[in-house]
């Protein structure tokens, strides 16, 4: 494999990748949305997925926690195939946190309850422990003082930080972010990006779909560029942004930079 198409940054080959996608195909009816997807993500790695609208970025993320099934190919996490159903699937969803454009908090629950509900229900953590964990996570994302409020009383940036804390409460191995700042007013984008940057620095494995090119440049280990369901390029950000190889990537960058 050449450097650009190499699926993994790992040179040593000792630690197995955390996520492996092999020849993944996905259709929506006649639409071939994921084509021959091969990707490996190492533990601790930050992969930013870029590409035009409709190129399959969200679908790619959603296949990894099985919000979408695949037609063929393999996806493994920590060497195990994704469970199809039952307790295995619930465990997978806990291990793979996902943060979307819309924050999807429980509107009728307090901020703290939003963060503790899954640890209590899924992990059977005693309430007291769950609340201590929840408060420490709200602290970490800078919204501990909002713990007793309802989500609607918070700004969009604060709500998205709560959504991140809620995912972290399940101690995920991997975090998927699908345009987490796209619904935010511009002045709130940075506070969410900062939380994501801290998380990356602390070693979280992350797959991030974003239009925040500053984040991609500074924080990504690798950029994956998608077009029409295919991965066209995989490169470190300094190379991708200065010397993209494909015409499609050049065209994409010329429109956004
Ligand atoms: P991106 O996130 O890069 O904008 P998506 O993964 O959301 O792209 O979508 C890829 C393609 O699949 C698009 O053409 C989109 O319209 C289509 N698509 C996405 N979800 C569905 C669905 N549930 N049913 C049918 N088509 C879909
Ligand atoms: Mg999308």
UniProtKB/TrEMBL annotation:
Gene3D superfamilies (alphabetical): P-loop containing nucleotide triphosphate hydrolases
Residue stretches spanning the membrane: none
A Pfam family this chain is assigned to: ABC_tran
Official protein name in the record: Amino acid ABC transporter ATP-binding protein
Membrane topology field: Peripheral membrane protein
Record GO terms (molecular function): ATP binding
Tagged with keyword Translocase: no
Residue ranges constituting the ABC transporter domain according to the UniProt record: 19-253
Family annotation (InterPro entries): AAA+_ATPase, ABC_ATPase_HisP-typ, ABC_transporter-like_ATP-bd, ABC_transporter-like_CS, MetN_ABC_transporter-like, P-loop_NTPase
SMART domains noted in UniProt: AAA (SM00382)
Domain of life where this protein originates: Bacteria
Keywords from the UniProt entry: Amino-acid transport, ATP-binding, Cell membrane, Membrane, Nucleotide-binding, Transport
């Amino acid at each position: 494999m050449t450097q650009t198409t190499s699926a993994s940054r790992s040179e040593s080959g000792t630690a197995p990748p955390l996520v492996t996608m092999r020849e993944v195909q996905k259709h929506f009816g006649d639409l071939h949305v994921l084509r021959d997807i091969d990707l490996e993500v190492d533990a601790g790695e930050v992969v930013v997925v870029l590409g035009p609208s409709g190129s399959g970025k969200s679908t790619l993320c959603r296949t990894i926690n099985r919000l979408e099934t695949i037609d063929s190919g393999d996806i493994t996490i920590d060497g195990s195939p994704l469970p199809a159903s039952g307790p295995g699937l619930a465990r997978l969803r806990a291990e793979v946190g996902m943060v979307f454009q819309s924050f999807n908090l429980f509107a009728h629950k307090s901020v703290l309850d939003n963060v503790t509900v899954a640890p209590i229900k899924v992990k059977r953590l005693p309430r007291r422990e769950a609340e201590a964990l929840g408060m420490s996570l709200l602290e970490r994302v800078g919204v501990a003082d909002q713990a007793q409020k309802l989500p609607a009383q918070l700004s969009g940036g604060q709500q998205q930080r709560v959504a991140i804390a809620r995912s972290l409460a399940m101690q995920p191995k991997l975090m998927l972010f699908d345009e987490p700042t796209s619904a935010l007013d511009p002045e709130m984008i940075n506070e969410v990006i900062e939380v994501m940057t801290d998380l990356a620095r602390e070693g979280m494995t992350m797959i991030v779909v974003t239009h925040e090119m500053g984040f991609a440049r500074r924080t990504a280990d690798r950029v994956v560029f998608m077009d029409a369901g295919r991965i066209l390029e995989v490169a470190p950000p300094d190379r991708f942004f200065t010397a993209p190889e494909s015409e499609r990537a050049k065209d994409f960058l010329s429109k956004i930079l």
